[in-house]
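All the exercises in this workshop are built on plain-text protein records. There is nothing in a record beyond a sequence line and a structure line. A learned vocabulary of local backbone shapes supplies the integers on the structure line. The question running through the whole workshop is how a given chain folds. Here is such a record, shown just as it appears in the course material:

***
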Amino acid sequence: MLTGVAHEPRLLPVIPMGNGGLQINVARSDGASLSAAQADGIDLLHSTNLALNQWSPLTASRTVINGLLHLELPHPPTPSFFLARQNHSAPLSVHSAATLREAVNTARPGSRILLAPGTYTGGFAFPQLRGQEGAPIIIAAADPLNPPVIQGGANGIQLSAPE
């Protein structure tokens, strides 16, 4: 994974299913496997008329299978146009040290990272992490009444060299 770089989603060719439905798959632009946390930050939009530039969110069930965000639409309207985009305002929920590292390493200005309750082993170091004026990167407790605990390591979380 490239540290500090977010990867825009890439919509793969839509696959027709035998029942008349469509299968939609979304990958990372760099070809690496998509994690569940990254999939949560992807908006999938649908339109039936590109001339009107009106897009609606797809509400189909979403799963991550073999590193791809996967949706099945049983009976989509025709014509159908699809768009996948990164939603940097959607919070990323993390539940482990590995997903925290991944979320911070792919954070961009405006990202919100929410730590689930629990104990995380310390020693996190995130150099070069920075937001922008009006679009900070926020790392916060998912449940302020039951905040996460970071313990161990030489430090809890170290942020350095932001510029």
In short: The radius of gyration is 18 Å.
